[in-house]
Amino acid sequence: MTDTRSVGLVVPQRARFDQALNLRSGASLPGFELVFETYGELNADRSNAVLVCHALSGSHHVAGVHANGSPGWWDNLVGPGKPLDTNRFFVVGVNNLGGCYGSTGPMSINPATGKLYGADFPVVTVEDWVTTQARLADHLGIDCWAAVLGGSLGGMQALEWTLRYPDRIRHALVIASSPKLTAQNIAFNEVARQAILTDPDFHGGHYYEYGVVPARGLRLARMMGHITYLSDDQMAEKFGRQLRDGKLKFNYEVDFQIESYLRYQGDKFATYFDANTYLITTKALDYFDPAGAYGGDLLAALARAKADFFVASFTTDWRFAPERSRELVYALLHNGLDVSYAEIECSAGHDSFLLDDPQYHAVVGAYFDRIET
Amino acid sequence: MTDTRSVGLVVPQRARFDQALNLRSGASLPGFELVFETYGELNADRSNAVLVCHALSGSHHVAGVHANGSPGWWDNLVGPGKPLDTNRFFVVGVNNLGGCYGSTGPMSINPATGKLYGADFPVVTVEDWVTTQARLADHLGIDCWAAVLGGSLGGMQALEWTLRYPDRIRHALVIASSPKLTAQNIAFNEVARQAILTDPDFHGGHYYEYGVVPARGLRLARMMGHITYLSDDQMAEKFGRQLRDGKLKFNYEVDFQIESYLRYQGDKFATYFDANTYLITTKALDYFDPAGAYGGDLLAALARAKADFFVASFTTDWRFAPERSRELVYALLHNGLDVSYAEIECSAGHDSFLLDDPQYHAVVGAYFDRIET
Predict the structure, then answer these.
(1) B residues 78-97 near A, CB within 8 Å?
(2) Do residue B183 and residue A240 have CB atoms under 8 angstroms apart?
C-alpha cells in the first residue's frame, strides 16, 4: 500500500555558493556547497516556505524516501495532510555546513591543500549555519520564511533566525530546545568529544588519510548520547532489568537488554557518521548563547526578534528540560512577542520531539494551520 | 593545629583467609587477603563494632590519615566526637575483594598461573563481599555488628548484611543507595565498561603484562561518572558557562571550566585506579538485586531481615534518586521493621553522601547516639 501522506520519492539537490563566508571563529571559507531537499510547491507569492533545521545527527533528508528506501528523519511530521502539510507549504531541509551528508564539511576537499579538510575544517556555529541558510533562501528566491522549525539544536537555529534576520522569518517553532546549554549539557558533550579525540584512530582528525575512522570514540559518544535522549522512566519501561539471555554471565558480554540496545546503537552510528562532524556539531551546541553578548540578559538579547513563536517542551526531557523552554518563553513574552507554549506529557525524554505523539502533533499542526500563506 | 576530632595516623592491617571462597558466579578462590583499618577500641562485650563499606572508588581508608598525609574518604563522618564517634564505637573499614588497594584482586598473583590475575580475576558481587566481610568479622572476634554503614554501593552491602547474616547485624545504615540499579544506571555503567574494554591498552585485561594501563578508557569512565555524581543544579552553580580563559577558542582545547574540571578528574583517576577493579565493581552494582530471586518482590526478599534501619537519600541525587530509597523504606516497613528515613535537601547530587552537610551529619549522629553498645 502506498502511503498517501508521504511526499514519496525525493532526490537531494545541491547549491554552490562562491562568495567567501566569514565565520564567527574568524576563519573563512572561500565558498561552500549545501545539499538540500524540498517538498511541496513554492506559491506565487513565495510566502509559504518553511525551513526545517536538523539536530546533531540529522540531515537534509527530512521527509519522503530516497531511492534506497531510506525515510526522512521527520517523515511523521512533514507530508501531505501531516502537521507540516506539504499541500500548503513549500518545505526545505538542508544539511548544515560542516555536516557529513554532502554539504561542505570535513570530508570535502580543502582548496588550499587539495586534500580533505579533516580536522582543518573550521568550527562552525549556529550563527554561521543561519548565515548559510539565508544564502540558500536567496538561491531559492525566498525573501521571508513563513516559518523556521527545528527540534533540539534545530530549535536553536530557528531561534537564531529571529535574531539574525528578524525581517526574513514570520514564525519560529522551537521544540525541545534551549536558549543555551547548561554545564551538564556541555559536560556530556565534552566526554563525547574526548572519546573521539583520544581514540588512537582519530589521528588528529586526519583519519581519512589513514583509511580508518575513530569508531571506538564515535560509538562511545553515541552510547552515552542515547542515555541522555531517553528518559529514566522510559528506559525502565522499555528495558528495566531484562536480561538478554535469561541469566547473568559474570563476564563483560551483554547481560542486560539495555546494554545490547546501546551497543547496537553505538555500532550502527559509527559506521555512517563522521567523527569530525560530531566534534563540530557539539561545539556549535556548546557555543550557542545569544544572551552571552548581553551579559547573560536573555530579554535584551531577544529584543530584536519580531517573529511569532511556537515553543514546545516535553515533561520527561532532562537533556533540554521544560525549564529551559520556560526561560525562553518568559523572555519572549516580556519582549511583547506572540508566543504559544506547549509542555507535552510524553515519556520518551528528549527524543520525544522525533516521535509521532498525538498530542504533540496536534499542537504543531494547529499552529501551522493558523500560519497564513 | 592538630585536629582533635581526627583518629589521627592510621596504619592499614592485613588478614589472610585460607579457606576456599565459593563465589556467586560459580568460580572459587583458593583463599584471599583483605586489607582493613580499625578506629576506636572494641569493648569487652564486643558489642560496639561498626563496619563501613565502600562504594565504587573507595577503600579501607575511611578515617584518619596515612603516613603520606592521605586522609580517609569519610574522615568528616568518622572520628572522636564525629557522627560515627570512635570514642564509643570500634569502626572497621575494609578494601573489598577485587579491589585495587591491597585486598586480593586483579593485581594479585593467581596461584594457578604464577602471574597477575588481570582479567582472569572472577567477577565478584555484593553477596560475595558480605561473605568475605563476615570472615573478617570472625577474624576480629565480632559475632554481631552494632551497625553496618555504607553509601551508594556501600549501602547495598549494608542491606545485604541484613539478608545474608540477619543475626550478625543490629543496625543497617543505607545511604544514597538503592535495592537495585535502574536501566539508566546500568546504561551508564555499560558505557564506562565499554570505554575501558575497547581501549587498545586494555589488552583483554592483561595490560599489566604490557606495562601499560587503559588510561583513556578509565579517564572517560570517570569523566562520565562525575557528571552523574553531581546534580544539574550544582553544576550550574559551580561552573555554569564560565570560560576558563575568558574567550571561546574555536578548537577542541578547554573552553569551559566544566571541561577543565572533568578532564582533571579523569586524568587523576586514571593514574591511581585499576581498570579491572572498575569493571568488577560496576558489575557488582549492576547485579545487586535481592528481589530478583523473589520475582521482583522486594517485600518478600526482605522478609528475613531483622535489623533496624536508617535510610537516607538526597533530594538532588538523580543517580540513586530518593524514589529508590522510598521503595526500600516501604518494603522494610511492610515487613514490620524499625526504619528511620531522612530525605535530605542538599544540592550536591549523589556525592552529597560524602559531604559534611550539617543536617545530614546531624541525623546520622542522632541515629548512632541511640545505638546501644
Answers:
(1) none
(2) yes
Using the Cβ of B181 and the Cβ atoms of chain A, whether some distance falls under 8 Å is answered with yes
Q: With 0-12 CB in 10 A as exposed, 13-18 as middle and 19+ as buried, what is A243?
A: middle
Question: Other C-beta atoms within 10 Å of A369: how many?
Answer: 10
Residue A194's CB is within 10 A of a number of other CB atoms, namely 24
Question: Does residue B70 belong to the interface with chain A, where contact is any CB pair within 8 Å?
Answer: no
Q: What is the rounded distance in angstroms from the CA atom of residue B326 to the CA atom of residue A138?
A: 59
B93 phi, psi to nearest 5 deg: -115, 140
Q: Please list, in sequence order, all residues whose beta carbon lies within 8 angstroms of the beta carbon of residue B39, skipping any fewer than 6 positions away.
A: B7, B10, B62, B63, B64, B78, B79, B86, B90, B91, B93
Question: If residue B367 lies in a helix (H) or strand (E), which one and from where to where?
Answer: helix B358-369
Res B2: pLDDT: 55
Which one of B24, B190, B224 has the shortest CB-CB distance to A259?
B190
CA angle B184, B187, B193 (to 5 degrees): 150
Write down the catalytic residue from B317, B325, B352, B357: B317
pLDDT per residue as tens digits for the range B100-146: 999 999 999 999 999 999 999 999 999 999 999 999 999 999 999 99
Is B359's Cβ below 8 Å from some Cβ in A?
A: no
Instruction: Read off the pTM.
Output: 0.97
Amino acid at site B173: L
**φ, ψ for residue A88, nearest 5 deg:** -105, -35
Joined grid coordinates for residue B341: 528515613
Q: Which amino acid is at A176?
A: A
pLDDT at residue A1, rounded to an integer: 44
Mean pLDDT, range B194-199, rounded to an integer: 98
Q: Which of residues 98-137 of A touch B (CB under 8 A)?
A: 122-123
Task: Return residues 17-46 of B near A (CB < 8 Å).
Answer: 24-27
Q: Which residue positions in chain A have pLDDT lower than 70?
A: 1-3
Contact between chains at A123 and B250 (C-beta distance less than 8 A): yes
Q: Which three cell numbers stand for residue A170?
A: 514570520
Q: How far apart are CA B60 and CA B14, in angstroms?
A: 11
Cell of residue B103, nine digits = 585486598
pLDDT at B351 exceeding the cut of 50: yes
Alpha carbons within 13 A on the beta-carbon side of B276: 28
- What pLDDT score was predicted for residue B4? 80
From A332, A354, A225, select the one nearest A278 (Cα to Cα). A225
Instruction: Give the separation between CA B350 and CA B313, rounded to whole angstroms.
Output: 9
Dihedral of alpha carbons B130, B136, B139, B140, sign: negative
Distance CA B128, CA B105 (A): 13
CA-CA distance, A293 to A274, in Å (whole number)?
A: 31
ipTM of the complex, rounded to two decimals: 0.96
